[in-house]
Amino acid sequence: MPLNHTDQMHILKDILSNQQTDCCGTVAECEQMERLIKSLMINTDIDHNVKSVLQDIYSYSQNGKYTQSLDNHIDNHRTELTQWINDIDSFS
Questions:
Q1: Quick one: CA torsion of 60, 61, 65, 70, rounded to 10 degrees?
Q2: Are 6 and 81 spatial neighbours (Cβ–Cβ below 8 Å)?
Q3: DSSP secondary structure letter of residue 41
Q4: CA angle 9, 36, 13 (to 5 degrees)
Q5: Fewest CB atoms within 10 A around its CB: which of 9, 15, 20, 35?
Q6: Are the CB atoms for 26 and 58 separated by under 8 Å?
Q7: Are 77 and 56 in contact (CB under 8 A)?
Q8: What InterPro entries is this protein classified in (predicted)?
Q9: Helix or strand or coil: residue 43?
């Protein structure tokens, strides 16, 4: 059963929240975020403002996937993680 965009946003928020709280993550999480965001970006039901936030998160996940230290990458983006989580909450 495919996930609707609300479910996808919840999963994305959960991954971001876990990374923000734990200050660590995995390449698989970055890849999962990329897949979710690609699906959300083509969805016409998604608000334009959300898509801007999704583009930022996509860049973050791509950079994280290829960084030498994902934990440092996450730690360096804690402020953005908090903001993205808040943004997702405001659009949900």
A1: 60
A2: no
A3: H
A4: 35
A5: 35
A6: no
A7: no
A8: YtzH
A9: coil
Higher pLDDT pick, 9 / 92: 9
Which token pair is 49?
């403002």
Distance between CA 18 and CA 7 in Å, rounded? Answer: 17
Q: Is 78 left (phi over 0), alpha (psi -120 to 50) or beta?
A: alpha
- Tell me how many domains the chain contains: 1
Q: Sign of the CA dihedral 55, 58, 63, 66?
A: negative
Largest CA distance in the chain: 36
Mean pLDDT of 9-23: 96
Please, what is the angle between helix 48-66 and helix 27-41, to 10°? 150
- For the chain, how many helices (H) and strands (E)? 5, 0
